[in-house]
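Subgroup meeting minutes
Present: P.N., E.W., G.H.
Scribe: E.W.

1. P.N. recapped why we're keeping a running log of single-chain structure predictions: easier to compare across weeks, and new members can see raw inputs and outputs side by side.
2. G.H. added today's entry (123 aa).
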Amino acid sequence: MKKVIIILIVMTLLLFWTVEHKPGGSFDYYLLLKPYPTLDLFLGGGEEGHYARRIANGEFPDWLVNEQYIKLAWGSWEDNTKPWEYLRIGTLMVVFLGWPILFIIWSGLAAKTHLTRRSSKTP
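Output recorded in log:
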């Protein structure tokens, strides 16, 4: 159980330190390493003019506007699916399904332990 929790924590940290960014007016997209973890998992998209207006209006984080990130990988909608895309989707599924499942298991074990202790104390 401890190994599962550790793996889930590491995967969650990796997920929230990265973002998939799609520049406006382009079929390309990038996997970026953010300077700090945030809840942003996907950024960008739309036509080029709309994307530029969103940047000007401050709708994107400062680290994206000031290019304070590291490009880890890239892909294109016109190209084949890259291996990192499968890893990212798998990580998303494991993190967003893993925590609720882990909570349900932990709650069941806690309830079972509580009921076992309670029944063993009854004369």
